[in-house]
Amino acid sequence: FTMYLERAGEHDKKMTDGWKGDADGILVFTGLFSASVATFLGISLQSLQPNSQDTSTFYLANIYQVLSDSNGSHVPIFITPPSSSDPTAFSPPASAVWVNVLWFMSLVISLTCALLATLLQRWARRYLQITQPRYSLRKRQRIRAFYFEGVEKHHLPWVVEALPALLHVSLFLFFAGLVVFLFNINHTVFSIVISWVGICVGMYTYITFMPIF
User: Fold this and answer.
1) Which has more confidence, 152 or 179?
2) Are 58 and 87 in contact (CB under 8 A)?
3) First to last CA, the chain
4) What backbone torsions phi and psi does residue 33 show, to the nearest 5 degrees?
5) Cβ proximity of 178 and 193 under 8 Å
6) Burial track 121-148 (b if 16+ CB lie within 10 A, e otherwise)
7) Mind listing the pLDDT tens digit for each residue in 65-109?
8) Measuring CA to CA, which residue among 152, 162, 153, 173 is closest to residue 116?
9) 116 close to 27: Cβ distance less than 8 angstroms
10) For residue 175, how many other CB atoms are within 10 A of its CB?
11) Closest C-alpha to 169, from 100, 99, 94, 113
12) Quick one: three-class SS letters along the chain?
């Protein structure tokens, strides 16, 4: 039992240290990445709402029209620009909707990864505390075997591997939203950015599947 527990303890410590290291890296990256995505969302959200200045101009023009009609005035009205329209009939462009959908999904997935990473850190600490109590060797062996079987049964190593994959999905969603956003802003910037994104996607695909071959 002593040899088994020593080797099991070394294996568990190495396993939980790996989990903690992955969780620490994910937390650092998600903190910086989420802040960047939130900054872009602060800009893109404005495209989903009618312009406040146009709304004010529309209602001021209506007030001026009502006052002019009530006084019998025939003074021409120059306050209403040709582009002024009813703000209640505002409909955001499809590109703006897609940009915000992609960026909001990216932000939500990134924050979800951060939450799961904190739970993973807590679970790793708890696992070591439970599997290394001050009991008899036989009881410690039974406790450790029970919890390690639970780790394997619930595929926790696969969950740990899935966290970086979710983070990658979040990053690609942000890139997709950025490409759509720039397409409607400036085609030169769009061409340069999409070229670099294509290179990154190609490198990512090559590095991901390289161990298979």
Assistant:
1) 179
2) yes
3) 42
4) -65, -45
5) yes
6) bebbeebeeebbeeeeeeebbeebeeeb
7) 666 656 555 555 444 444 455 556 667 788 889 999 999 999 999
8) 162
9) no
10) 19
11) 113
12) CHHHHHHHHHHHHHHHHHHHHHHHHHHHHHHHHHHHHHHHHHHHHHHHCCCHHHHHHHHHHHHHHHHHHHCCCCCCCCCCCCCCCCHHHCCCCHHHHHHHHHHHHHHHHHHHHHHHHHHHHHHHHHHHHHHCCCCCHHHHHHHHHHHHHHHHHCCHHHHHHHHHHHHHHHHHHHHHHHHHHHHCCCHHHHHHHHHHHHHHHHHHHHHHHHHHC
Reply yes or no on whether the pLDDT at 50 is more than 60: yes
Average predicted confidence (pLDDT) for the chain: 78
Place of tokens 């404005």: 46
Q: What is the pLDDT of residues 119-155, one digit of tens each?
A: 888 888 887 777 766 666 677 677 777 777 777 777 7
Lowest-confidence region among 148-152, 182-186, 194-198, 201-205: 148-152
Q: How far apart are CA 46 and CA 35, in angstroms?
A: 18
Cα distance between residue 200 and residue 207, in whole Å? 10
